UniProtKB/TrEMBL annotation:
SUPFAM superfamilies: ATPase domain of HSP90 chaperone/DNA topoisomerase II/histidine kinase (SSF55874), CheY-like (SSF52172), Homodimeric domain of signal transducing histidine kinase (SSF47384). It catalyses: ATP + protein L-histidine = ADP + protein N-phospho-L-histidine. Pfam families: HATPase_c, Response_reg. The modification 4-aspartylphosphate is found at residue 57. InterPro entries: CheY-like_superfamily, HATPase_C_sf, HATPase_dom, His_kinase_dom, HisK_dim/P_dom, HisK_dim/P_sf, Sig_transdc_His_kin-like_C, Sig_transdc_resp-reg_receiver. This is histidine kinase. Its EC number is 2.7.13.3. The lineage of its organism: Bacteria, Bacillati, Cyanobacteriota, Cyanophyceae, Nostocales. Transmembrane segments: none annotated. Residues 123-160 form a coiled coil. Residues 201-458 form the Histidine kinase domain. Residues 8-124 form the Response regulatory domain.
């Protein structure tokens, strides 16, 4: 870019008279003037001290004005310097050629001083304006560049920020999910621990008195037998007893007592034996609930669970009985945590009953067409799993609720009725503990079906040797009482 502080004009002409006339006129007008007498010397001079404007003659020895102009325009350092050709008045061809080579104007010889000066001044002004514009343009370009890069940086930053926010949100929702799961586990294990202690205590307290009742019953039975034999003996030895004895015998219906008493004693023995079994299952539960996987009959577990909720299935004033259809398939013994699976059955069955009760309460004149039914279907699927399908003809589950059924603490039941933990605990038991799956199928208005699938064999399960537990199948079957405990 040229230095606008200088006021230097270079005149290139091989005719000394021309040089003289022009120099004088320009100097008088306040310009600094440099002169060159050939194209070559002009080019050298311009490189050394670039002028603000060049007045260039066409006809010169050596390289002519056109060639000089060409070379100056080809050089990036000099191409911006305005060139005015000096041509003879009639030389139209030269004028056009000069302009096409990049000259800004021409002045004709002989010079009209005033016109030449006016043209020079206009071109200098134009040159200054164009330089200022270029500078401004460069500034604007730079500004645009800066803004573009600032915008790019901002975009990058926004993207990074968005990414971080979404990562953080993901982390937080995962943390929340984990926390809820941990909470459910904690509640469950806490419940079981307290329950285990309670059950162990109760079992211990009941065990002793029951044992001595049961033990003494055998003696009592023997004594009773002896006493009855003695009475018979009296009757044979003294057939004619006194009137008073005969009266008393009739009054107490001695013959009936003789027949009934042994039956009573043996039913008492059966009763105490049952209590002992219950106590034993309490003890088993409190000791073994967290124990290893056992091979069990799933139908026994379902039946015990049904026995425990039997009271909820019975007809009540205004409500009919809830009918249970057992559509059991042919299942092999299944390796599982029996108590925990019973807990799952209890949760699903209780929900089905809740749903049916809700429907009955909301449906006036509940008629026979709407008789409440729970169907339990079991089958082997894919050769290595079993499926238990528990279906009810209750109100069904809307899609919105279906999405959240297994979420911890999600309930649609009134406060105090549901904790919203039943299905999430069941999900944990089936999916995490047994590697199975638990899902529901429902069309609102058409009841709901919960499908529990677990593998028949569990990894890490080793069959006990016959001498360790020959009757493992028998002992592993959960009694209804231990299932009840698993529910509390
Ligand atoms: N058979 C069903 N029919 C209709 N809705 C059901 C059925 N089973 C579950 N649900 C819905 O799923 C929700 C969650 O069930 P979940 O067993 O986890 O909790 P809850 O029964 O509400 O409370 P809790 O079992 O802890 O006492 C229920 O509140 C209910 O809305
Ligand atoms: Mg429930």
């Amino acid at each position: 870019m040229q230095n606008s502080d200088t006021n230097l004009i270079l005149i290139v002409d091989d005719t000394p008279t021309n040089l003289e006339v022009l120099s004088e006129a320009l100097t008088d007008a306040g310009f600094d003037v440099a002169v060159a007498t050939s194209g070559e010397s002009a080019i050298k001079q311009i490189e050394y001290e670039p002028p603000e404007l060049i007045l260039l003659d066409v006809m010169m020895p050596g390289i002519d004005g056109f060639e000089t102009c060409k070379r100056l325009k080809a050089n990036p350092k000099t191409k911006h310097i305005p060139i005015i050709f000096m041509t003879a008045l009639a030389d139209t061809v030269d004028k056009v050629k000069g302009l096409s080579l990049g000259a800004v104007d021409y002045i004709t010889k002989p010079f009209q001083q005033a016109e030449a000066l006016a043209r020079i001044q206009i071109h200098l002004k134009l040159q200054n304006i164009s330089v200022a514009l270029e500078q401004q343009n460069a500034r604007l370009q730079q500004e645009i560049q800066e803004r573009v890069s600032a915008e790019l940086a901002l975009q990058k930053l926004t993207q990074e920020l968005e990414q971080r926010v979404s990562e953080r949100t993901k982390e937080l929702s995962q943390a929340l999910h984990d926390l809820q799961k941990a909470q459910v586990k904690l509640i469950q294990s806490e419940k079981l621990a307290t329950l285990g202690q309670l059950v162990a205590g109760v079992a211990h307290e009941i065990n002793n008195p029951v044992n001595f009742i049961h033990g003494n019953l055998q003696h009592a039975s023997c004594y009773i037998e002896d006493l009855l034999a003695l009475i018979s003996l009296y009757q044979t030895q003294f057939p004619d007893s006194s009137l008073e004895i005969a009266k008393k015998s009739k009054e107490i219906d001695l013959e009936f007592i003789r027949l009934d008493l042994p039956k009573i004693v043996s039913s008492m023995a059966i009763g105490t034996q049952r209590i002992q079994e219950i106590v034993q299952s309490f003890r088993n539960f409190s000791r073994h609930d967290e124990a290893e996987v056992k091979k069990v009959n799933i139908h026994d577990g379902l039946n015990s669970t049904l026995m425990l909720i039997d009271h909820r299935l019975k007809a009540k004033p205004g409500y009919p009985t809830i009918q249970v259809i057992k559509d059991y398939g042919n299942l092999p013994p299944v390796e599982c945590f029996a108590g925990k699976m019973n807990q799952v059955f209890m949760n699903v069955l209780s929900n089905a009953i809740d749903a049916l009760e809700e429907l009955m309460a909301n449906t006036q004149n509940f008629d026979h067409k709407l008789s409440p039914i729970i169907r339990i279907h079991t089958e082997v699927v894919g050769g290595d799993r079993i499926a238990i399908r528990i279906t009810d003809n209750g109100p069904g589950i809307s899609e919105v609720v279906q999405k959240r059924v297994f979420d911890p603490f999600f309930t649609t039941k009134p406060a105090g009725k549901g904790t919203g933990l039943g299905m999430s605990i069941s999900h944990q038991i089936v999916v995490e503990k047994h590697g199975g799956s638990l899902y529901c199928i429902s069309c609102p208005g058409n009841g709901a079906e919960f499908v529990i699938e677990i593998p028949i064999r569990q990894e890490n399960f080793s069959e006990p040797s016959w001498w360790e537990s020959p009757d493992i199948l028998e002992t592993s079957v959960q009694s209804p009482e231990s299932s009840l405990i698993a529910q509390i």
